[in-house]
Amino acid sequence: ASDYMNGRQALSPEYDIAAQYVASQFEAIGLEKAVLLEDGTSSYFQEVPFAKTSYSDQLNWTVTRDESTVTLEHLKDFKVIFGSNFNQTNKEIAWVGYGIEEPDHKWNDLEGLDLDGKIVVCLTGAPTKKGKPILSKDIHEKYSGRNGFTNKAFRGLIRKGAAAIIMVDLDGTSGRDFENMRSQTSRSRFQYQSGKQSSSGSMPTFYMGKPELLNALFGDSKENPVSNPNKFLKDYEPRVLAEISFNAEIEVLSEELASTKNIIGVVPGTDPVLKNEIIVVGGHLDHVSPRNGEV
C-alpha cells in the first residue's frame, strides 16, 4: 500500500512486485499452484494478455452540419469523465434530450431510438417549466446531481450500445464544475485480448461538454436549449441527427502487446465428492493511478 508502489497499476513494474509478494504469501500458507504451464510445471501466475495503445495529448472533435464544420478542443470545450476509446470517424449523433426513460411517468426520451454505435448527446438534470419540475419530485431528484448522471448512464444509456456519451450541463444540475473538474484522460489504453469477439462491444467513453456543442448541433434552431432555454421543450424531439457528422481524433503513437498476471492458489478439498466442486474467493491486486504524484 506504500506510495512507492504508485498505485499498483496493472502492467506496471510495481504491480509485478506486488504479484510476487502475494505469490510468496500463498506459498507460505500452503496454497497449491493452480496454473498448469505448457512445460508441464505449475505456477501461481496466470498470464493475462492486453493490447496497449499509446496516445498523444491532443484530442479534438469536429462537428459537420450543412457543410459547415465546427472544431471543439479538449479541456476548453469538453473533458473526459472516464473511458479511453477516443477516436471516432464519421459517427452519427443521437440527441436524447434529457435521456430520461420513465414510461410509467409518461416520459421516455429513448423510445424508438437506435443508439448503437452512435455519439449520444444528453442534457444533465431533468426538465422544468418556469423553474418548477415537470416530473414528480422523486423522479426529478433521481436524475439530478451526480446520482442523476449515474442513473442516466448506467441504468439507461450505457446498455444501448453507444460509441460515446456526452453530457451537457446548462444549469449546474450535474453537480460538476466544468472549469475545475479534472479531465480523466490517459496517454495509454489497455484492452483485454480474449481471443474471442466480444458481443457487447467496448465501454463507451463519457464526456462533459460545454454548451458550445449544442450550438454546433442546432445553430439558431428553436430546439436549441442554449438559445431558447425557456421554449425549447415546445420543439423537443429526441432523435438521430442524421444530417450531422461527428469526428474525434487523437494521434496514436504506438501499439503493442503486453501482459499482466492473475495470482491463483488452491486449497484442495478432502471430501471425496465435494472436492470436485470449487469455491472461488477473489480480490483485486491492482489499484488506481497516482494523481499529482500522490496515490
Features:
9-stranded mixed sheet; 295 residues; 14% helix; single chain; alpha+beta
Summarize the structure.
The chain is of the alpha+beta class and 295 residues long.
Report on this structure.
The longest helix is centred in the first third of the chain and has 16 residues. The chain is 14% helix and 34% strand. Strand 11 and strand 12 form a beta hairpin. It has 4 helices and 17 strands.
- SSE string, helix = H, strand = E? HEEEEEEEEEEEEHHEEEHEE
Give the assembly state of these chains. Answer: single chain
| Number of separate helices | 4
How far apart lie the N and C ends? 9 Å
The chain-level mean pLDDT equals 88
- Poorly predicted sequence stretches spanning 5 or more consecutive residues: 197-201
